[in-house]
């Protein structure tokens, strides 16, 4: 039996489609940015967005072998400022995928994280973690906003992804 799987490209496309829906919704509902949020001690939805996109950016830099920006150096500014962090991460992830071969995907790298210390993982696993980390936090955010009276109206499950054919 051949193993069939979802590609990293498909997961990245789903992540990007989901993020764009969130960006549109947040731009239309700016008060939601100030909703208190205790996910990852973020303080607010705004703080959680920084966390989601900082992880994307920092790990994407690790994938490329670049110097990793300090977490505190990532701007907390406006939604546009934060979405620029995400946009840079996506560019990095696409670049990595366009250049990576099997050896690069399976190479074990050492990374220093903010919350878990020093870890070792393959670049493939780190790539998947970036996307799963974002998905998990978007789901948490959806629940937190709904509980605070800010309901979103689109399906968020991967099955409904516009990125899938």
Write the layout of secondary structure elements.
Layout: H1 8-28, E1 36-37, E2 43-44, H2 45-64, H3 79-99, H4 102-106, E3 108-113, E4 117-122, H5 123-147
Antiparallel strand pairs: 1-2, 3-4
Which shape, going by the Cα principal axes? globular
Strand arrangement across the biggest beta sheet: 1-2
Number of domains: 1
Amount of beta strand = 5-15%
Largest sheet: 2 strands, antiparallel
Low-confidence stretches: none
Number of DSSP-assigned strands: 4
Question: What is the ordering of alpha helices and beta strands?
Answer: HEEHHHEEH
Q: What helical percentage do the residues reach?
A: 55-70%
Please write the CATH class name: Mainly Alpha
Number of helices: 5
CATH topology: Four Helix Bundle (Hemerythrin (Met), subunit A)
CATH architecture: Up-down Bundle
C-alpha-based Rg, rounded? 16 Å
CA distance, first residue to last residue = 23 Å
Overview of the molecule:
By secondary structure, the protein is mainly α. The chain has five helices and four strands. α1 (8-28) runs parallel beside α5 and α2 (45-64) packs parallel to α3 (79-99). The chain has a single domain, classed as Four Helix Bundle (Hemerythrin (Met), subunit A) (Up-down Bundle), CATH 1.20.120.450.
């Amino acid at each position: 039996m051949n193993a069939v799987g979802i590609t990293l490209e498909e997961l990245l496309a789903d992540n990007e489609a989901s993020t764009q829906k969130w960006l549109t919704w947040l731009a239309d509902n700016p008060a939601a940015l100030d909703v208190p949020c205790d996910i990852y001690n973020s303080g607010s939805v705004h703080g959680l967005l920084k966390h989601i996109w900082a992880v994307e950016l920092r790990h994407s830099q690790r994938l490329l072998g670049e110097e990793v920006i300090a977490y505190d150096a990532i701007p907390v500014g406006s939604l546009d400022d934060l979405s620029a962090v995400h946009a840079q991460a996506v560019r990095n992830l696409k670049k990595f995928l366009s250049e990576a071969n099997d050896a690069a995907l399976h190479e074990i790298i050492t990374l220093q994280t903010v919350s878990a210390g020093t870890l070792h993982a393959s670049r493939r696993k780190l790539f998947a973690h970036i996307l799963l980390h974002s998905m998990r936090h978007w789901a948490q955010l959806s629940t937190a906003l709904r509980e605070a009276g800010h309901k979103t109206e689109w399906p968020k499950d991967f099955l409904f992804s516009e990125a899938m054919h």
